[in-house]
């Protein structure tokens, strides 16, 4: 499913209306009707409902919902933030249809005392105040209403966006509606995957409003959510006549005396994710520790300079920050035709070698967390977090890499700027070692797939799904270890392959 910016959603609406000829008031009817249908399944006959309406088209959707609610005999009051004569266009059309159907409008500003008094009586509030058309901080009258809604006990359902939230995920510090549930129209918006906006949404559902396929293909949308179905459709299917060499001969350069575990985690995860043959290049002093833990792994000397037999190289987990590590990275970057995955200390060393990335012929995957991304770009972590989509896109295009910007809703960006957002995973992943596991999965998937973006997106999904599986069964958010994730990869893959029979 696509993810859209404010401008993309507006362009989709505009194309549908101006070129295809489907009128805005029809889209608004579809939106309101779709929201009503979704809402009704959770309503009780005795619910007292307030639909709170702003002056734009988001308010127009609110009038449609209110009409359907009243038609179905739900006790519904409509409260309008602005004066009626300020409502224009499609919203005015649906306001009139609502009034002509016997509806009544209460003014918030003209009767604020009455509004405050009534608010505590409602069991459900439909928030149709502001949607994608908001600019900056809501005006005072709007902020006051938002504050009152947040203090009310009612279940708040927001239309399209929780009012006050900025659609493109820009940072903000003003108050916005804390929704219990948000019914977003046609496509998820960027802000659903960024902070602080994401915390206001509650549960989310997407309501189709009838934007035709032609409008969507004309727009050329380049961001999407990566779902379990996407993973199932794109996982590689094993050829019955394949052999170990078919599934990737990879070299993992990882682990140092102080961090041998990172190599174990990455290597185990790569093997559990299907890599055919795995060599490990590890510091001599760490070799003893890991040998007995990795019976399936072959060992490569750290002094080796011939990488020609490998179909891919992953470098970084537990590598250490010594000059030796940087020299190794420089050597690996010289292998222009070999796909690379660079993580952790590999990214630390990469800051001195960024200019070589663009000349790499084979795919290069970088897997920074926001701190590493800040180092790579010379920005602060806050700047990175405030513009995760934008910074990822600029960097991936500039350096011609696949960028995996980790965090809640990891964003994967291709060198052409296509973006995939992952929705699996939970805070159990916030622990040392989980990145090493991800590197192993990405590495293995990359070597088994012709499409790097699909391979990486699947790997990120599987990593998150392993954490979800652990928390769903016999773990809490606190006690999941990175090695538990690695051990859970088979359960996740078994489930994904269930219908395909790999
Ligand atoms: N044809 C369309 O364009 C459709 C639009 N739809 C709805 O329309 C919404 C977008 O409508 P609009 O573009 O009219 O915008 P909104 O209804 O989201 O809000 C913008 C309105 O609020 C005012 N406003 C802007 N910034 C403000 C601020 N900081 N404080 C107070 N008021 C502010 C603007 O003057 C404008 O009247 C979507 O979120 C969706 O709910 C749906 O009905 C589907 C069809
Ligand atoms: K809203």
TrEMBL record:
Q: How is the cofactor bound?
A: Binds 1 potassium ion per subunit.
Q: Which cofactor does it need?
A: K(+); Mg(2+)
Return any one Pfam family short name: Carb_kinase
Which residues does the record give as K(+) binding sites? 58, 127, 163
Q: Where does AMP bind?
A: 406-410, 435
Domain YjeF N-terminal residues, every copy: 9-217
Reaction(s) catalysed by this chain's protein: (6R)-NADHX = (6S)-NADHX; (6R)-NADPHX = (6S)-NADPHX; (6S)-NADPHX + ADP = AMP + phosphate + NADPH + H(+); (6S)-NADHX + ADP = AMP + phosphate + NADH + H(+)
Q: What is its EC number?
A: 4.2.1.136, 5.1.99.6
Its subunit composition reads: Homotetramer.
List, alphabetically, the PANTHER family matched.
ATP-DEPENDENT (S)-NAD(P)H-HYDRATE DEHYDRATASE, ATP-DEPENDENT (S)-NAD(P)H-HYDRATE DEHYDRATASE FAMILY MEMBER
Q: What is this protein called?
A: Bifunctional NAD(P)H-hydrate repair enzyme
Source taxonomy:
Bacteria, Bacillati, Bacillota, Bacilli, Bacillales
């Amino acid at each position: 499913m696509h993810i859209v910016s404010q401008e993309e959603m507006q362009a989709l609406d505009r194309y549908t209306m101006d070129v295809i000829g489907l009128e805005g008031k029809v889209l608004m009817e579809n939106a309101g009707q779709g929201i009503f249908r979704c809402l009704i399944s959770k309503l009780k006959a005795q619910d007292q409902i307030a639909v709170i309406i702003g002056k734009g088209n988001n308010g127009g959707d609110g009038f449609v919902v209110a009409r359907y609610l009243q038609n179905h005999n739900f006790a519904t009051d409509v409260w309008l933030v602005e004066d009626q004569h300020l409502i224009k266009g499609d919203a005015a059309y649906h306001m009139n249809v609502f009034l002509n159907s016997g509806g009544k409008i209460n003014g918030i500003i003209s009767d604020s005392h009455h509004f405050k008094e009534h608010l505590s009586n409602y069991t459900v509030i439909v928030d149709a105040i502001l949607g994608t058309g908001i600019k900056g901080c809501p005006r005072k009258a709007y902020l006051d209403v938002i504050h009152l809604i947040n203090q009310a006990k009612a279940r708040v359902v927001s239309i399209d966006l929780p009012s006050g939230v900025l659609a493109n995920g820009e940072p903000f510090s003003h108050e916005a509606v804390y929704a219990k549930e948000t019914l977003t129209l046609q496509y998820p918006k960027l802000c659903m995957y960024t902070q602080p906006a994401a915390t206001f949404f509650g549960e989310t559902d997407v309501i189709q409003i009838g934007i035709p396929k032609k409008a969507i293909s004309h727009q050329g949308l380049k961001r999407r959510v990566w779902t379990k179905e996407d993973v199932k459709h794109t996982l590689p299917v094993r050829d019955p006549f394949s052999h170990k060499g078919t599934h990737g001969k990879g070299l993992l350069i990882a682990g140092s005396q102080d961090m041998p575990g990172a190599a174990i985690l990455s290597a185990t995860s790569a093997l559990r994710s299907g890599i055919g043959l795995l060599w490990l290049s590890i510091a001599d002093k760490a070799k003893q520790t890991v040998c007995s833990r990795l019976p399936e792994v072959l060992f490569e000397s750290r002094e080796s300079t011939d990488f020609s037999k490998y179909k891919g190289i992953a470098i970084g987990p537990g590598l250490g920050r010594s000059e030796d590590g940087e020299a190794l990275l420089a050597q690996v970057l010289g292998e222009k035709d070999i796909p690379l995955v660079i993580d952790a200390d590999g990214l630390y060393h990469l800051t001195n070698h960024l200019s070589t990335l663009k000349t790499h012929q084979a795919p290069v995957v970088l897997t920074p967390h926001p701190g590493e991304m800040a180092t790579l770009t010379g920005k602060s972590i806050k700047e990175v977090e405030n513009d995760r989509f934008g910074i990822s896109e600029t960097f991936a295009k500039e350096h011609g890499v696949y960028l995996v910007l980790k965090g809640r809703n990891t964003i994967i960006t291709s060198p052409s700027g296509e973006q995939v957002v992952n929705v699996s995973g939970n805070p159990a992943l916030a622990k040392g070692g989980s990145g090493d596991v991800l590197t192993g999965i990405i590495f293995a998937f990359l070597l088994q797939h012709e499409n790097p973006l699909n391979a990486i997106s699947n790997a990120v999904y599987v990593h998150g799904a392993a954490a979800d599986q652990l928390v769903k069964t016999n773990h809490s958010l606190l006690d999941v270890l990175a090695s538990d994730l690695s051990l859970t990869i088979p359960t996740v893959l078994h489930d994904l392959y269930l219908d395909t029979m790999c």
